[in-house]
Predict the structure of Cyclase family protein.
Amino acid sequence: MAAAHLVLLLLVAGSHGFPTVAEASEAHPGYAGTDTCEGPAEVRMGIEEYGGGRIVDITHAYQPDLPAFASGEVTGPVVRLKESMANGSLYNLSELRMECHRGTHVDAPGHINQDHFAAGLDVDTLDLEVLNGPALLVDTPRNTNITAKAMESLRIPKGVRRVLFRTLNTDRKLMWKKGGDLSYVGFTEDGAQWLVDNTDIKLIGVDYLSVAAYSDLISAHVVFFRIPV
Ligand SMILES: *[C@@H]1O[C@H](CO)[C@@H](O)[C@H](O)[C@H]1NC(C)=O
Ligand SMILES: *[C@@H]1O[C@H](CO)[C@@H](O)[C@H](O)[C@H]1NC(C)=O
Ligand SMILES: *[C@@H]1O[C@H](CO)[C@@H](O)[C@H](O)[C@H]1NC(C)=O
């Protein structure tokens, strides 16, 4: 097994009250006019009890307007009818098409580490024990990226393994903004290094499409994925 790596989860952390996917809230405006999930109402609520804890569904609906990782870009059509009965086919057949690095996603260990990629460390190899369990939601200082100084100021206790970082991105509703915006807040290289050196965190969740600030896009990922340099 290659070097240990952190699991990077990209999502929006909702918190005020009990936000659901379809329901609007200050942190999660929801999706007007769309019922984003199929299934019975109690499932669509997006809140479940698990082992005495609370599960809040803060995933984003995959839809054409979802921002993509480039200035001004959107995801575009995700589903299309490949075969259509309306057009004379004997059946309807839909095709799904999107990049894996869209919406609420987890970075694969090989995303920015060629050795991990070559070793076949894809998302299936991630430890479910790391991915599941209680998480701490922290608000980062709004006037900075997640630097070493910002990390230090958060005073995240030792022993905490999963942290969702809510940042200026949520205030700016960047995940609801049509078109990608590269001025999002994320980890700088020194912020990533501070986290690796001083905390027990194994899972990081952030509220935009990349865990690393655009200015430190590769270097901060490299720290998290532990490429020996
Ligand atoms: C059905 O046929 C029309 C006319 O050829 C075409 O414009 C449309 O894209 C087709 N739709 C599907 C789902 O195949
Ligand atoms: C097949 O797709 C068409 C176009 O979306 C839809 O109107 C029709 O209801 C579908 N048929 C079935 C059997 O689902
Ligand atoms: C965070 O860094 C990006 C560059 O990656 C920059 O555009 C943005 O203004 C910074 N945000 C803050 C709050 O410092």
Observations:
- The first helix runs from residue 41 to 44.
- The longest strand covers residues 79-83.
- Confidence is low (pLDDT under 50) at residues 12-23, 34-44.
